[in-house]
Amino acid sequence: MASRRQGRLRLYRRLTVFLIALLLSIAPGLCLYFGPAPIWDSVDVSSLPTELPGEPSLQALHRLLLGSTGYTLLEWTLVCFALSIASLAFVQSNAQREPASPLVCMVATWCAAITLFHLLAFHGFSMEVVNLTEFVHLNWTIAQTLTALLLLTAGSLVLRRADHTPLPPRLLFLFGLAITTMAFLVIFFTGKAASLPLLLEPEGLLKRPADLLPLVLFGACALFLFPRIDRVCQSHFSLALWASSLPLIASQVYMAYFSPGLFDPGFTAAQFARTSAFVLIFAGLVVDFSQTQRVEQALQQRLAASDRQVNILVNNALEAIITFDERCRVTLWNPRAEEIFGTSRTDALGLDLLHLLFDEHSNGNGRDEFLHDFHRLRDDPSQIASPTTRRMFFYPSDGSDTTHVEPELHTNDNHNIPESWADFLDAIENGRKPASDIEISHYSTN
What's the pTM? Predict the structure, then answer.
């Protein structure tokens, strides 16, 4: 019942995310349909400050500046979210080993770089664009097409890795540097070109035929790539990535079918939908980070409580408890060990265990036997539970030879584990009290 309820809640959460993505996708379309009709079919920025048909030049300039301001705000918002996504995805790829993180990191880096360079050129900060109208239209198509191709290519490579491990940080950084360089070159050459290939059909159903290709590619991501990534990752981040495909598809629909000109309602709707997609991805990353932080804090609290319990048991044990590393250096030395061996914990930590156990009165046999068992157990830890690995060492006070013997406790007192376990099972079958219960074992250790 509990698992069924959790599965139902998980389904409702997923449906809620896709519903939010759907609303962000259709909201610009509703504004486009119910809003005012476009004042111009297309805008040629080079024609200003001449009058546009049917309007005074001052009002036309006001409308143009309003569209340009909205476009700039949406693009800068996209840059901020894309940079944040790239940074968070890079950190998540190193810390949590999320398979989809390198994919989103590269795509977000590309979108942030080409949008940033485009805005700097559009406003004349980095270069003087020769043909501004064709520059804006063409760079939208290039940016969206390469975004979809990056998603498909990088996503396929991530899924083909057998262990789904992310890329190394250095390789991911080099990819990001190459993508940023490519974005700068695209903006530089399109900004300096005297004429650019731009196909517009204002009177046709498909206003911008070149934007049909990224529309198909984003559809392929939504149908084939993102569902597989979500099945592999099963996180809020992968779900948000899948849901973001809806605004990306909507942005291409608005641009291809409803935007014959620059800064018209279809153009603005496409910009808003694309920015919404990155907002969704950013929200998924933030939720994942918050959840991971809560889990890590809970684990740290549990580990701290466990450490306190272990320290209490170790410090109050009636037996000497000693731990050491692979070089036989002491890492734990409890108070009982201090009493037995006469060495304080401060002096014992970090010392060679053999030096503490074997003094100048001990010959080499005991040391050799200990080293033999130590290396054997280190190479094959499964032998720790074997009775043959338990040896008893005797150190005579007169300095004579150290003697080691195998345990010979296979007697009726049931001190040995195999006999104790067999007696315990027999006691269960016959309904009697075992010879070595908890109380007797407690007395026997004292």
Answer: 0.69
